[in-house]
Amino acid sequence: MGMMSGYWGYRQLGRFVERHRTELISRLKIPCARVPSYSAIRRVMINLDYEELQFVFNQWSKQYSLIPSSEWISLDGKSLKNTVTNYDRVA
Description:
Elements: H1 10-19, H2 21-28, H3 38-46, H4 50-62, H5 77-81
Helix pairs in contact: 1-3
């Protein structure tokens, strides 16, 4: 959530967690009302298997997808424009 909100780096993520402490504890039902410090966030991120995280996230997100897997959707026209040649040529 911190990264999606523009917080980058361990200290910034730690500040995000502290800033939103009450809401995070409430919504995520965190036991003992303790949120991680920036050093705990750092330790987790250093030891994280990002390929496994990507796989698990993709599996989780598929249950919320309304787009059939056989179709594609572009969320950013600039990115789509850079993937094809002669994008402005009428067929």
